[in-house]
Amino acid sequence: MTRLAASLLCTALLLAGCGGRDSDSGWNPLRWVSGSAPADTLLPEGGYASTQDQRPGIPQILSARFERLGEGQLLVVTGFAPTKGYHDAELITARPQPAGRISPDADGVLRLRFVATAPNPETETARIPANPQTDTITTALALSFVQLAGVVAVEISGASNTITLRR
């Protein structure tokens, strides 16, 4: 008998906590069905801003190759700029992706851009022509076996040319 009384008392207290018809309580069973409450979301009004990297592509890509790593492969790309002073070179995905994630497009091609920050045109280094033998720009991107699982080819684009590596 005490178990029945205890369970009835708990049920009565629970229903009393639900409040009336206009209660904002999440325990109100009338709100579970009506769906009148707006959905809570972390999405900002207007959505997230899509920020595309504004650095220009390397003027000329000279070579691209894969080097073996213990947990994947290292994509090494070398390019050439017409003047000295290019810096902050990087391989980035052609379409925006979450930080730390790299995945190929639906056709299995991983499309990358080889970008670098050009020197300020007013500086002296921007006026010095680069030497093709000594002033190459090299960057690398480590790709794990998981990231390479669905990749059929890697396409690297610069400002004037594109290199494709088949796997």
Automatic annotation (TrEMBL):
Name of this protein: Lipoprotein
Organism in which the protein naturally occurs: Paracoccus homiensis
